[in-house]
UniProtKB/TrEMBL annotation:
Protein name: homoisocitrate dehydrogenase
GO biological process: isocitrate metabolic process; lysine biosynthetic process; tricarboxylic acid cycle
A single MF term (Gene Ontology): NAD binding
CC cofactor: Mg(2+)
Domain Isopropylmalate dehydrogenase-like: 16-363
Amino acid sequence: MLRLARSYTTATKTLTIGLIPGDGIGREVIPAGKQILENLPKEFGLNFKFKTLDAGFELFKKTGTALPDETVTELKNNCDGALFGAVSSPTVKVAGYSSPIVALRKKMGLYANVRPVKSVDGIGRPVDMVIVRENTEDLYIKEEKIYEKDGQKIAEAIKRISEVATKRIAKIAYEIALQRKQAADLGAKSLHSKPSVTVVHKSNVLSISDGLFRETCKKIYEENKEKYNIIDYKEQIVDSMVYRMFREPEIFDVVVAPNLYGDILSDGAAALVGSLGVVPSANVGDNFVIGEPCHGSAPDIEGKGIANPIATIRSTALMLEFMGYTDPAVKINAAVDANLMADTIKTPDLGGNSSTQEVIDDIIKRF
């Protein structure tokens, strides 16, 4: 769903955004995205309508359904984009339950999870990378079984890597690298003088499954050399990728990985910029995008009014960016950067004592 930036006219456009709070602090941070959109400067010519939709583990416990058909139908037929809050994940098997966000990604064809991890000037280590995670397969297909052999239990899970899914994720990673280069040429701050894509795998051990991922990513690059020739193609074994990401994060631009590695890398990368509470993501397909903060449902702080809304606010900007509304996305991120650099209004996870709403209000004031 990569789109060119839209030009703005005096005509006002109304967009319908689905709001799926989910569980825990999802119900406290999704209102932040709504308030941000409602308070965007009128110069962008955007109005918003909202549809609040159900999903989550708490819903499953009440109704036996984690992702109602009505939610998917509304998103497909009546929404231009959506924001998803958080979902609780039980640590033990619960009969009949599976993650609604995983199911939603599949039903909506959202095959890429895109997670920018970028430091703010003067705060922490210099980081400017985007982790592109394949969203539909790998171990997350959840085809597992357990059986006994010689009186001992054995659990097995299928890891699925397909050529078609890998082609899609490789292409979007290369396109994001090109877009980031174009943005840098237009004056956006960047740590990178030349775009690069790092393909993460473990084909030295998983020569068939990860081997296919690696080979397919490389093939897409080589078959489109005329278009991608300004991109440096790189590879990294996943364990050394983790090591280098923490030792020298500034060297990575776009990183593309299968589902499981991408999940682990993107959460780990959040530590480089202070907190999961500031890291956004977007679930992207050919026709739809859902912004989703990277944090979980955080039951330990639920209801206290101190959840960090920045990941949701940045995810709102990312949603707009993938919908083609680049200018308001830039405005939102600039306001968030100003809030972080001021270092006065911040939630406890960043060392402050401000409330969720105080952070929202401060960011809106900076538009």
